[in-house]
From TrEMBL:
Transmembrane segments: none annotated. This is HAD-IA family hydrolase. Pfam families: Hydrolase. GO terms for molecular function: hydrolase activity. The keyword Hydrolase applies. PANTHER family: HALOACID DEHALOGENASE-LIKE HYDROLASE (HAD) SUPERFAMILY PROTEIN, PTHR46649. InterPro entries: HAD-like_sf, HAD-SF_hydro_IA, HAD_sf.
Length: 229
């Protein structure tokens, strides 16, 4: 069956939060020792992993973690606790959290623009479906891609978290398509794969660093009969 619309996850799928030289000034321990490469990578993973829980919380902390993508205040509470639990001092944790929620600090994958433009050229509508508690629209708008996304469905705005079918249904309704003719592309089979409950197809991509994943989106669409090059 042909694909009439494509939905994309955000983090680890079309954009990725990556460190840059300025992070060296932030990722230091209480004694001033810089985090090594592995430790920096682990902190980034903890800030962006879609479903994994990395520590044990007290009851209020667990509530914040479980509902972090529904409320900006709970999101901040949960991730500051994760950063502190990862050995990041208080002041640096606040700085890192500010970077996490800055949509302009995120890096697009090399083929993100290519696939968005190719889908638009073919008249295939696009939606972004994300478990997130901040507005990611500026990440698209600053690159002129906002007009290529017909539905921006964010968990904190619609009150549902993937894999809950309601969040996918919201995007599908906005695009006005048959869920059986939709492809969902994401980096989590557990979260993004929830779209299959509505009859959609699912394509898994690996949330590698952007430099190491030049064409995963292109290849994922090709496997489902959509050429973007």
């Amino acid at each position: 069956m042909a694909i009439d619309a494509v939905l994309f996850d955000f983090s680890g799928t079309v954009f990725r939060l990556e460190d840059d030289p300025s992070w060296a000034d932030v990722l230091v321990g209480d004694d001033g020792t810089p985090f090594d490469v592995a430790a920096k990578a682990e902190v980034l993973r903890r800030m962006t992993a879609p479903v994994e829980q990395f520590m044990t919380f007290d009851p209020p902390g667990q509530h914040a973690w479980d509902n972090r993508d529904l409320d900006p205040a709970l999101h901040r509470q949960a991730y500051l606790e994760v950063l502190r639990g990862s050995g990041v001092p208080e002041a640096q944790a606040a700085d890192l959290y500010g970077r996490l929620i800055d949509p302009l600090a995120w890096t697009p994958y090399p083929d993100t623009g290519t696939v968005l433009k190719a889908l638009a050229a073919q008249g295939i509508p696009v939606g972004v479906v994300s478990n997130i508690a901040f507005d990611i629209r500026p990440a698209f708008a600053t690159r002129g891609w906002d007009t290529l996304v017909g539905a921006m469905t964010l968990s904190y705005e619609v009150g549902a978290i993937k894999p809950d079918a309601r969040i996918f249904q919201d995007a599908i309704d906005r695009l006005g398509v048959d869920p059986n003719r939709v492809l969902m592309v994401g980096d989590s089979a557990e979260a993004d794969g929830g779209a299959t409950a509505l009859g959609a197809r699912f394509a898994l991509v690996d949330p590698l660093p952007t430099a190491d994943r030049p064409r995963a989106l292109i290849d994922a669409l090709a496997l489902h009969g959509i050429a973007t090059q």
